[in-house]
Amino acid sequence: MLRVNLVQCEAVRPLLWRVVLAGSLASGLLLSSPCGAQDAGELLQEWRITPRLSVGTTYSDNIRLAPADEAEGDLVLQVDPGVSIRKQGGRLDLRLDYTAQGLLYANNTDASKINNNLLAFGTAELYQDHLFVDAYGSISQVPVTSGGRVDAGNLGLGGGGTSGGALGLINFNLGVLPGAADLFNPVGIFGNIALTGNDQTTAANFGISPSWRRNFGDWAKALLRYRYNDTGYGQSEFNSQTQAVTFNLDSGRRFSRLGWNLAYSYQQQDGQQSSNVQEGGNSNLGGGNTQQESVSGQLSYKLSDAWKLLAQGGYDNNTGYTDNQNGAHWGLGATWTPSRFYSLTGLYGLNFNEIAVQWNPSPRTALQVSRSYQGVGTSPGVYWNGSLSYKTRYSVWSASYTQEVTTVQELLGNSLTGLGPDGQPIALDGQGQIILPNGSLGLTNQSFLRKFFTTGVTYQRGRNALGFNAFSESREFQGANLNNEDSYGLGALWTWRFAPRTASFLGTGWERDDLGDDQQNDYWVSVLGLARVFSPDLGGLISYRYYQNDADPSDQGFRENRLNARLSMKF
Fold first, then answer.
1. Where is this region: Disordered (predicted)?
2. DSSP type of residue 22
């Protein structure tokens, strides 16, 4: 008798219902509000709801990613119903993609399960120009322990369970093949099929954030925002809730030479437990709750078109961080802008100094680099941040580097914060760069200093497209006797449309995880496949994947060959 494991469904059901409720509430408030009622009929016509279904089968000669002498093959039937909802324009922008990945195992029938995958973001204007509400949610599959068995879909270049895997397939849409982007969902093609046992769990994230904006004539403009975020996992000891309040008051247009800003922020993260010990020796003891509070002010005075004087100061008051240092900080300096393409900013003072460069020689090129010293805060020290974007007629180049003190719960909670130019939910860091919140590193309740670098190049011309991604991530834990973790890798993908409706794809990727205590993983993965669009609503795909881990210790190593065939349709 075939049985489906619903444990993961039960674990995420409360958050899933809250995501649906938040979206319904925002839409209902919008349509019933005085400013939106008169346009309700038009708004309903702008909704685009697309049900979809993928069915297929996958054969793996090592379904448990076990050592060679323990390898076990299995045939997996996949049934993946889903829905995409789009709404742009008017007073509501919404994008929601949900897939229920149904996996039925021929030999391991007791392991049959449903993986929920959700990516959703919506923003509604409830009261014209003043009251806004953002709601967002995500569900994906993530590793529990660093060093555990990881399916290729959760390697670092894939960014987690809702994306494409270690080959740099984050934008796996076979762009050279018209219509393929709406048919082929990377969920189920490259990951979340292997039976990794307790090494993988479901991560669910929900957030809602109302905000109030007010202009005081031309004198000042204010923004008050509240955010509630609920992060839950299949293993509840990692659950957390975050509440944050921010207030900003900026100078208006009447202050042509003198600019000013006042800001206040408060964030509290609750619910982190302290009972789990990771494999690899990293203990989660002492996670506890955290609080961050800061107040700051800035002044600027324009001397000329090229020079602007700067002054800023503030006070930080935080609790729950091992390396925390509370206190005041201030800095004095200037910004030099010799042309509209270049600017240099420098500040120096008590517990703070910074130098920042911006270079924008053309609309297609942007470079930002900053180096700052912070003597107070959650982890005092030197911080580097930067981003580069460059576009040509046929290619897009990008790179970014960030440093921050964070937790895995905060990374998941902050992973959906906006909509891209195409309406696609995107993850943003402080500089507006796309971040990858997941990867092969496991869950922990400890805060850590995260250093993350990513770079990518995409080239598309005619019937060919090439993509290259590379990344490096390190976690420096704030606690004694904890092993720091490093992960880095690269991947490439080539797609070729050799017939009007048919394209091939060939990719490869490598990732290394250094976990301390002589524990190391070297992942290699390659994929080869064909995709065909039979009609605008029907497509098929076949692929072969080879995946291996040269691990130390060797009992974590494995080899896997996988064949996949699927038929995808939308209605």
1. 271-293
2. H
Range 350-360 average pLDDT = 97
Using CA atoms, how far apart are residues 78 and 80, in angstroms rounded to an integer? 6
Residue where the block lists tokens 């990858």: 436
Cβ-contact 221, 214 below 8 angstroms: yes
SS3 labels along 402-428: EEEEECHHHHHHCCCCEECCCCCEECE
CA 462 to chain centre: 30
What is the rounded average pLDDT for all residues in the chain?
Answer: 82
Q: Which of 322, 260, 326 is nearest to 294 (CA)?
A: 326
Q: How far is it, in rounded angstroms, from Cα 164 to Cα 357?
A: 34
DSSP character at residue 185: -
In the chain, what are the domain boundaries? 7-570
CA distances 393 to 67, 335, 418, 458, 463, Å, are: 47, 33, 27, 11, 15
Nearest CA-CA partner of 328 in 371, 374, 292: 374
Instruction: Report the distance separating Cα 116 and Cα 434, nearest Å.
Output: 23
d(CA 478, CA 448): 5
Burial class (CB within 10 angstroms; exposed 0-12, middle 13-18, buried 19+) of 422: exposed
Average pLDDT over residues 552-563: 89
**Mean pLDDT of the 496-505 span:** 94
The predicted pLDDT at position 438 comes to 58
Let me know: does 318 contact 290? Beta carbons within 8 Å.
Answer: yes
Ramachandran class of 493: left when φ > 0, alpha when ψ lies in -120 to 50, beta otherwise: beta
What is the arithmetic mean of pLDDT over 149-177?
56
pLDDT of residue 20 exceeding 70, the answer is: no
Q: Can you name the residues that pair with 511 across neighbouring β-strands?
A: 489, 523
What CA–CA distances, in Å, run from 554 to 67, 153, 356, 387, 522?
8, 22, 46, 38, 11
Q: Is 206 exposed, middle or buried (0-12, 13-18, 19+ CB in 10 A)?
A: buried
Chain centroid to CA 416:
6
User: Measured between alpha carbons, how far is 95 from 110 in angstroms, rounded to an integer?
Assistant: 35
Three-state DSSP class for residue 252: coil
Q: How far apart are the C-alpha atoms of 318 and 42, rounded to whole Å?
A: 48
Return the pLDDT at 430: 40
> How far is it, in rounded angstroms, from Cα 366 to Cα 210?
32
Please say whether the beta carbons of 521 and 440 come within 8 A.
yes
Res 344: pLDDT = 98
From CA 548, how far away is CA 526, in angstroms rounded? 9
Q: Which DSSP category does 34 fall into?
A: H
pLDDT tens for residues 280-325?
444 443 456 889 999 999 999 999 999 999 999 999 999 988 888 9
Whether 154 contacts 142, CB under 8 Å: yes
d(CA 251, CA 1): 69
Could you tell me the CA-to-CA distances from 317 to 234, 322, 534 in Å, in that order? 33, 14, 60
- The residue type found at 566 is R
Q: How far apart are CA 158 and CA 489, in angstroms?
A: 11
Structure-block tokens of residue 269: 């993260």
Which CATH architecture fits 7-570?
A: Beta Barrel (2.40)
User: DSSP states of 453-474 as a string?
Assistant: EEEEEEEEETTEEEEEEEEEEE
Task: Answer yes or no: are the C-beta atoms of 209 and 227 closer than 8 Å.
Answer: yes
